[in-house]
Design brief:
Layout: H1 9-78, H2 87-96, E1 100-107, E2 111-116, H3 118-123, H4 125-144, H5 146-158, E3 164-172, E4 175-187, E5 194-201, H6 203-224, E6 232-238, E7 244-247, E8 258-261, E9 269-275, H7 280-350, H8 356-388, E10 391-398, H9 400-417, E11 421-426, E12 432-434, H10 436-452, E13 459-467, E14 470-477, H11 500-504, H12 511-521, E15 525-531, E16 535-543, E17 551-555
Parallel strand pairs: 11-13
Antiparallel strand pairs: 1-2, 1-5, 3-4, 4-5, 6-7, 6-9, 8-9, 10-12, 10-17, 13-14, 14-16, 15-16
Helix pairs in contact: 1-6, 1-7, 7-8, 9-10, 10-12
Length: 556
């Protein structure tokens, strides 16, 4: 049974540094570069949308004007010469072209004539006021600028555009309606008399029929010919008012993104276009928002990486200090038993002892100190194997009661020499598959810990019992105890509690770390219950029936 060996601490730290700093930094650079490209692309898309809208508006205006020219040409073709212009003739034209509200003629010889839709003038007083208003305005203008306006219209006709359009807003009842006056020149072929004429496109017709129908037609054609996006919507507004009074299907409010003045046929009106559901400004704000989110996320990631790096570097520095203390402490721990062994061996060698009992006592001390030295070296070797991921355990069916008794008996001399009273409560428990040497070392480490950190009340109790499918091994002392805020760290390698007594007591700082590793390698764990000044209780919990079979297994 082999456990997969993880990377060692140095490798893990290097990988963490790469993940914490190098990876976020590289990600920041790469995503920033890509984001700049996206911003450039988005700006290009925005510019392309604006160019597309401008082109579509130009095409749409041309198509709207073409439709208006067709309507005006129909009326112009039926328009009588000045001498034939009577009320009946003009009423007949108005009757056959209901989209025309007013007809007007003027020449200096015959004067000014105006004719409006007869039925509407009778039924709607505001329509009559509108007729009077246009009559006064046009008559005054044409009388003053007849020659100049006639020449201008002649030049327009030579260029193929015989109309000069003049827009105006009038009050019709409670509505403010837009009128477009198509002014043209009518020349009598016989007499050569030039007459200035005008037709007024009805405001209600423009608002309710002409503009909605024409806008729908031009947009359908533009979408069908793939000249614009299907989500594009179009509208018409007055130059002095940002609110559209005519808009195509799907208009969802707001203002147009791209606009174009309709100066040719409908002066004073603005043709506009936007995307349904959003605006270019909103798209820009969205891109900026995304930019800030990306930069914020990357900055947070980088800050987190720097924090992790700082924490791990600090941890490694603290670990380096602990290792330095460990070397110093271990050196002392090794010197003490070696000095005793050397002292008693030299005494035996010089033959200064008086009787066999003294020889036996010295031999026993040398043996005990050598065992102590062996235990210390084994701790260091076990720690080295664990760090390298090569620690192996030999699981064999073991009588835990016998193992605990034998281990305590071999350590009894040192316990009593330190002035401790000793108590053991060993209940019958089922045999377990354990590594005998490792479990014995765990028990010795816990007992040795109790010896080191007990001052006044020198009493140790060891309990072995079965509970809820587990076997528990407890070592209880009445020593200095461990503060609650440090209990979760005492199983870390090299860590030692900040109590002055602890630091004045020599130790490697590896014992509890090894105990925890051994317990977990056996499928269990070790926990501590402690109150400062009242002592501590360390409990190793081992599950029954783990592992299922005997044999060697490697753990890291």
């Amino acid at each position: 049974m082999k456990a997969k060996r993880p990377r060692n601490a140095r490798t893990r730290m290097m990988l963490l540094l790469q993940l914490a700093v190098i990876l976020p930094a590289a990600t920041l650079v790469i995503l920033s570069a890509r984001h700049l490209q996206e911003i450039q692309r988005d700006r290009a898309v925005e510019a392309a949308i604006q160019r597309d809208f401008s082109q579509v508006l130009a095409i749409s205006e041309k198509q709207i004007n073409h439709k208006a020219y067709e309507l005006a040409d129909d009326v112009r073709s039926e328009f009588p010469a000045r001498g034939e212009a009577c009320n009946e003739t003009l009423d007949r034209i108005l009757g056959s072209h209901p989209y025309i509200a007013h007809l007007m003629l003027y020449d200096p010889t015959n004067g000014f004539v105006v004719r409006s839709q007869p039925d509407r003038q009778k039924d709607d007083p505001s329509f009559g006021h509108e007729s009077e208003y246009l009559s006064k305005m046009m008559q005054g203008w044409w009388k003053l600028e007849y020659d100049e306006l006639a020449k201008k219209l002649e030049k327009l006709e030579e260029k193929g555009t015989p109309y000069y359009f003049e827009g105006d807003w009038v009050q019709r009842g409670d509505k403010h309606v837009y009128l477009s006056n198509a002014i043209f020149l009518k020349t009598d072929k016989v007499s050569g008399t030039r007459t200035i004429a005008a037709m007024t496109f009805d405001g209600d017709y423009l608002r309710d029929q002409f503009f909605p129908q024409t806008l729908a037609k031009v947009m359908n054609r533009n979408v069908a010919e793939a000249q614009t996006d299907k989500n594009a919507v179009i509208m018409i507004r007055a130059k002095s008012d940002s609110t559209p009074f005519i808009y195509g299907t799907g208009w969802d409010g707001g203002e147009a993104e791209v606009e174009r003045p309709m100066e040719a046929v409908f002066p004073g009106l603005i043709l506009g276009m936007k995307l349904r559901g959003t605006t270019l400004a909103a798209l820009g704000e969205h891109w900026v928002h995304i930019s800030f989110l990306i930069l914020g996320g990357l900055s947070f990631l980088l800050a987190g990486g720097i924090f992790l790096t700082y924490r791990n570097v600090s941890k490694e520095m603290a670990l380096a200090r602990l290792k330095s203390d460990f070397v110093s402490n271990v050196s002392h721990e090794l010197r003490t038993p070696l000095a005793l062994i050397r002292l008693y061996a030299e005494t035996l060698e010089l033959g200064r002892l008086t009787g066999p009992s003294k020889h036996q006592e010295y031999y026993s001390i040398i043996r005990k100190e050598s065992e102590r030295l062996t235990a210390l070296i084994n701790n260091i070797l076990d720690f080295s194997r664990i760090e390298a991921g090569r620690k192996e355990y030999d699981f064999r069916e073991t009588d835990m009661c016998e193992l605990v008794r034998n281990t305590l008996e071999s350590y009894r001399y040192q316990i009593e020499q330190n002035g401790f009273t000793f108590e053991e409560k060993i209940a019958e428990v089922p045999p377990l598959n354990v590594d005998r040497e490792a479990m014995a070392r765990s028990l010795v480490n816990l007992v040795n810990n109790a010896l080191k950190y007990s001052q006044d009340r020198k009493h140790i109790r060891v309990n072995l019992y079965r509970e809820d499918g587990t076997v528990k091994l407890e070592v209880v002392d009445q020593g200095i105890g461990i503060p609650a805020n440090e209990q979760h760290r005492i199983f870390e390698k090299f860590y030692r509690v900040g109590d002055p007594l602890v630091h004045n007591t020599k130790g490697s700082g590896l014992g509890l770390s090894l105990v925890q590793h051994i317990a977990r390698a056996h499928g269990g764990d070790v926990v501590v219950e402690s109150t400062p000044g009242a002592g501590s209780k360390f409990t190793i919990t081992l599950p029954l029936g783990w592992p299922q079979s005997s044999g060697k297994a490697a753990f890291a």
